[in-house]
Structures are given as C-alpha cells and as structure tokens.
Amino acid sequence: MKFNVSAEMGYEVHTAGTLILNIHALRTPTQAVLDETFIIDPYVKVEEISAVNGENRIIRLEVPEKTNLQIIYKATVDNNYEIKDHSGREEIMIGKMDPQVLPYLYPSRYCQSDKLFRLANNLFGHIANPFEKVVALTDWINKNVEYRSGFSNSQTSAYDTVTEQAGVCRDFAHLGVALCRALTIPSRYFTGYAYQLKPGDFHACFEAYIGDEWILFDATKLVPINGLIKIATGRDAADTAIANIFGDILFTSMLVGCELADENFVPYYL
Questions:
Q1: pLDDT mean over 52-81
Q2: What range does the domain containing 67 cover?
Q3: What is the CATH number of the domain that holds 32?
Q4: What's the rounded Cα separation, in Å, for the pair 168 and 229?
Q5: Rounded CA gap, 233 and 181, in Å?
Q6: In sequence order, which residues have a C-beta less than 8 Å from that of residue 122 and are 6 or more positions away?
Q7: Taking the model in full, what pTM does it have?
Q8: What digits encode the pLDDT tens for the residues 213-239?
Q9: How many angstroms separate the CA atoms of 61 and 58, rounded?
Q10: Is the dihedral of CA 6, 172, 232, 267 positive or negative?
C-alpha cells in the first residue's frame, strides 16, 4: 500500500549551529521509498550519516549564520505490511537469540524494565505464549493509561507513566517497551508517519521481537497498524528523536502529513 508522507519544519537560527534531523522514511525489506524530495531554504550543507543504535536515516545540517530555516520533506512510500497469524510463535531462549537483539532486553533511559519487573510478571507472567503476552500488555496499557495530549514532557519515563496513568503516544510506547523487556521479550521504540492520525503528527509505538521477527504494536490504538510508515527504531525516544539541536536555534513550526496514495485500503488493528 502506497502513502504520501510529508514534514515541514521551521527554525529561527540566531547563531551558527547544527541540526540533526530524523524525518526520512526508512528503507527496509518491507518498506520501499519510491520517491522523495528534501528541500532546505536557504540551502546549507547537508550530510546523511549512519546511526550507531537502531535503524535511522540521520541528516546533519550545518547552519553557518543567522537565518530563518525552512525544511520540507516529501516521499511516496510503499508499505508492504503483511497480516499474519502470530499466535503460534514460540518463545526464544536468550541463549539462542540473535546477538543484535540483545541490547533491546536491557533497561534504558526511558524504559526502566528493571523497575517494572514485578508489575509485568504479576500481570502477564502467567501467559505462556509470548505473542499473547504482548497483546495482553498492549491492551492493558490502552485500558489503564489515559491518552492526554500535552500531559507529559521530555523527561517522562515508563515508570512515570505507570504512576500517572496518563500520557501521549511516546509514553504508551515506552511503557510497552519496558513491560516487554521485563518479560524477557526484546522490544524497541518505533517512530513514524501515521495514516488517519488526527491532528497530523509523528507517531510513536513499539516493536517486540517474537519468533525471530519484529512485530509492530500500538498501545494507543489511534491508527491502523498497516498505516504506519517507519522513520526509525531504537532503544527508546533518545535514539529516535525527530530533531536534535546544537546551538542557539529555536524551533518555530511543524506540519506533518500522511495520506493514502492507493485505493482499497483496509485498516488493520492489532
């Protein structure tokens, strides 16, 4: 299924500085970037660099002087999401896991799985099937955490979200990641463009590694799973920030869109 995604961002640059952006659609075996444009006005030096952690297409911009900077990204992306029956998947012992997924078992800055071990196992430890565990914890988050726009901030962690029982998509995703890791299921944070998200914005959810495959879950249940276009994954939001600013640069505006470019779309919710 094809989608047209876009992001328009504005910055006031007061002195020379650097912007590191993470807004480009990722190229994966199930997601093809068919066409894309990246416009910077006024033009500045641009470099695409490889991420150290997770999957990211990072763009580094060097801004040499005071200016008002406008950034426009547009892409047509073919998302080949396949609906599967995962209920028969078996748990993989840690000793047999791909070493590349092991970092997604560890606690991280926003996902303190070590602090949520008792909660996770009391609620979901009795469920034998790993896929059913993640489905259960995703449903639990959706029912027990209230989605409240603007409620949390950049310091809010999964542990805070359990305490406050409210948050935004970022908090729902962090809590899902932390609970999975507490149950010895590797999990990573996902950020992307989302079809049917109102108002338009970047969206956060999470992936769990079950049966040698990363499976996507969204505890907010605000958008269809097959309407998500991946931008990045990482241990948590610190690895997948849309923008990192270095210097006296002020963020001023943002407009995000994700529109269907094909017909006969059938939304799928997990």
A1: 91
A2: 2-80+242-260
A3: 2.60.40.2250
A4: 19
A5: 15
A6: none
A7: 0.94
A8: 999 999 999 999 999 999 999 999 999
A9: 10
A10: negative
The count of structural domains within the chain is 2
Does 122 share its domain with 222? yes
Average pLDDT over residues 17-34: 95
d(CA 184, CA 177): 11
**Tokens representing 265?**
């779309």
What Rg do the C-alpha atoms of the chain give, in angstroms? 19
Residue 267 lies in a domain: no
Query: For the purposes of burial, counting CB atoms within 10 Å of the CB of 126, is it exposed (0-12), middle (13-18) or buried (19 or more)?
Result: exposed
**Residue 261 has which token pair?**
């470019």
Predicted pLDDT at 104: 97
Check residue 145 and give its pLDDT. 97
Residues 217, 176: contact at Cβ < 8 Å?
Answer: yes
Angle at which helices 169-182 and 117-124 cross, to 10°: 80
- Find how far residue 75's CA is from the centre of its chain: 18
pLDDT tens track for 114-165: 999 999 999 999 999 999 999 999 999 999 999 998 888 889 999 999 999 9
175: CB partners within 8 A, 6+ apart:
141, 145, 158, 161, 162, 167, 219
Weakest mean pLDDT among 87-101, 132-146, 195-209: 87-101
CA 52, 54, 59, 60 torsion-angle sign: negative
229 and 252 together in one domain: no
Which CATH number goes with the domain that contains 106?
3.10.620.30
In contact, 74 and 6? CB cutoff 8 Å = yes
